[in-house]
Structure formats: C-alpha cells, structure tokens
Amino acid sequence: MKLLILNYEYPPLGGGAGVITQNIAEGLAKLGHNICVVTTWFKGENEVQIINENLKIIRLKSKRKYLFKSNPREMLSWMSYAKSFLRKHLISNKYDLCFANFSLPGGEVAYNLKIKFNLAYVVMSHGHDIPWFMPEEMMWYHALTYHWIKTICSNSKRNYIQSSDMKTNIDAFLGHKFSNKNKIIYNGWNSNVFSPNYSLRKKQFTIIFPGRLVKQKDPMTFLRAINIIKDEISEFKVLILGDGVLRNKMEKFTKRNNLENFVEFKLWLSKEEMLYQYQSASITVLPSLNEGMSIASLEALACGQYLIATEVSNNKSLIIENYNGNFIEKRNPKDIASKILNFYNTKFLNNYFIPIEDLQKYHKLYEWDKIIKEYETDLLSLIQN
User: Fold this and answer.
1) Dihedral, CA atoms, 243, 246, 252, 253, nearest 10 degrees?
2) Max Cα distance, the chain (Å)
3) For 88-92, 168-172, 310-314, 352-356, which range has the lowest pLDDT when averaged over its residues?
4) Which strand ranges, in their side-by-side order, compose the sheet holding 236-241?
C-alpha cells in the first residue's frame, strides 16, 4: 500500500507520539509499503529526507519554536502549511490511505484531504486529543473543539487507541454506533534496541524520571517524594531525563530543599543515551496522571527496569506487583517515597535483577514487529473494503 502519514511531531521533535509514529512508519516501510511522512521542520533538519526507497520524510516550516512542546497557535500554523502543501502534492502523488496522528491537528488535515481529494483516512489518538481523557488539564480546549473533533473522528475509517481506558472514553464520546471503528492496538518496544545489560548497572542507587516536565507527568510529586527519602538513604542519585514548562519550578524546589547534591537535570537525551540510562539505573518512577500508552514505561521495562508507576494507560497489564514494579497512588508523594524505600531495602540491597529469560518471554507480547503487522493487516483490510 501507499500511505500518507501525518504528525506535527516526529523525532527529534516531541515525545512519545513522535516515537510511535516513527516506529510505525519505519516498520511498514520495512514490510515493503511506500510511506510518506509529513511533519514539522526544526532547525538542523532537512526539509526532505529520503530514508530508503520506501520511506520519505517531508518537514514543513511553521511557527514551531521548541523541541519538547507546542502550543495551539503552532499547531494551527502547521495545519495551515500542511493543507497548502498537500493540496499541491496530491495532484501528482496518489495514496491509498491517510494515517493521521491526533484528531487535531493531524485529523483536521486528513479530513480536509478527504473532502477535496476523496482520500480516506484513519486517526490515531494518543490520549489527550479526545474529550474527556484528561479533563483537569484539557477541559476548556475540549469544550471549544468538541464538535470539531467529533466530526473528524466520525468521518474516519478507523480510530486507533492504545488501551481499554481510551476505548471506553472514545466509545462514549462518539456514541455506540461508532464503537466498531474504534480499535485498540497497543504501543510496542524494540528489543533490538531496548534490552537489559545488567553489567552496566551502577553501584550507586540511581532513580530516573523519564518524560516531559509537564503537569500530566506530575514531576513535582516525584520531587516531593525524593525530598522525603533524602534522609533515609545515605547515598543516591536522581536523574531527570526530559524538559518542559515545569523545569524552572522543579529547579527552584530542588535548590530550596537542598536536593542539588541528589538531583541532576539532564534534559533531552538521544535514543542511545536513553538506552544507557535505562540499562544503568536502579529504578524508574513514572507518576503520570494520564497517559495514552506510555513509551517510557515500555522502554524501561524492556531494559529490565523495576518500574514504579500509577495505574494509568496500559500499566496494569505491564506491571506485576513486586516482580517488575509497583503501583503508586496519584499525587501521593508519601506513597511514592514508601515504594522507593521498600525497593531499596528489599531488592536493591539484595542485588535483585529480573531474570533475562523471563524478560525475553515478556518482550514478545509488545514487540514492535508484532504491533506493526497488526496495523498492516487492519490498514490493508480498510483499503480493500
């Protein structure tokens, strides 16, 4: 098939959603399908990049300013540039289907192409783009865009989501008659890249927090937990792997509470650097308030990390209590501190490692190769029908 993929974020831009799009694009191209990705340009990147004979990346210049975040004005800018470019591009380039990421902005561009070129499309939601998945943060945005998003998702051939919670939400949003077009396909990990190497594990107790420093990920509650344990463990290190609007607030909290000897802000890292951090750290903590299906959770677990996380997204099917992680209450620094201390005293000090052979069995459930084939089968069926 010949597929047009739309996402305003694509590596190096953005976080998990861009990584997911990259894995799907590269995976489908590897299977022999012709893929064109239209995304946002960022300084240092080529506007057109030919990855191989089956994969082409087109980056459009818009008002995007930062790697790690984007605001509605920047998204509207990308939508405008994408529509303008694709109206010309589709005159001489024909596609079987458009694969749009996020109902807005990707879905709006795809809906426009359907009207003008009769190009069918699917939408992949990453959680917060569907009302009312994150009501506390997104209430006004969802109120303003409610009917817009409903029109986009109602006219798609398929809406992909990554968890049962997301399925319940979008089914309620669109109504029962559209429930059959809402399909769960999980996110995955690439065990050829993310796998354990216990020889790299540091002797010093090392805690990592990977992700955007935004309210959704709740990094402030994590820091409050670190402030609790600082007098309970003689020597440890905390690595913050990401950036975002809360960084300044977090740095001030760190300084005010004398945590500077414990906490290090490493900001955004390359895939190779992230792999090293996952392989060498003692434990990963993800106190997110909401998630689609966390790529950070998948990558950490694939590397043999013990994961302390909230029961959001698909974490309930990923974490086995006291084997590869623990669940924590949302916004509860005391609970996070308690779970970290329990891991330190009962597992870290006893040199606990998750057996490699168990991880290899576990990997097969969420391997990207398996996930990509699920997408391939479903997309081909949509094109043929």
Assistant:
1) -110
2) 66
3) 310-314
4) 263-265, 236-241, 205-210, 283-286, 306-310, 325-328
What count of residues does the chain have?
385
Tokens describing residue 270? 């390359």
Q: Residue 170 corresponds to which tokens in the numbers above? A: 């979008």
The yes or no reply on domain 198-365 and CATH 3.20.20.70 is no
Could you tell me which residues come within 8 angstroms of residue 279 by beta carbon, excluding any fewer than 6 positions away? 196, 197, 198, 200, 201, 303, 304
Side-chain-side CA neighbours of 229 within 13 Å: the count stands at: 29
Q: For residue 2, how far is the Cα from the chain centroid?
A: 25
β-bridge mates for residue 56, sequence order: 36, 50
CA atoms within 13 A on the CB side of 295: 20
- Whole-number CA gyration radius for the chain: 21
Q: What is the pLDDT of residue 325?
A: 95
DSSP 196: -
Distance CA 73, CA 79 (A): 10
Question: What is the residue whose two structure tokens read 């955004």?
Answer: 268
Residue 137: CB atoms within 10 Å = 15
- The Cα–Cα gap between 181 and 186 comes to 16
Placement of tokens 């994961």 in the chain: 307
**Domain 2-188+367-384 in CATH: superfamily?**
Glycogen Phosphorylase B; (3.40.50.2000)
Confirm if 137 and 218 have CB atoms less than 8 A apart: no
- Find out whether 41 and 12 touch, Cβ atoms under 8 Å: no
Under a CB-based contact definition with an 8 Å cutoff, are residues 119 and 94 in contact?
no
Instruction: Decide if 153 contacts 159 (C-beta within 8 A).
Output: yes
Beta-bridge mates of residue 39: 59
Q: Could you report the per-residue pLDDT of 26-68, keeping only the tens digit for each?
A: 999 999 999 999 999 999 899 999 999 999 999 999 998 887 7
**What's the token pair of residue 12?**
């190096």
Residues of the chain with CATH 3.40.50.2000: 2-188+367-384, 198-365
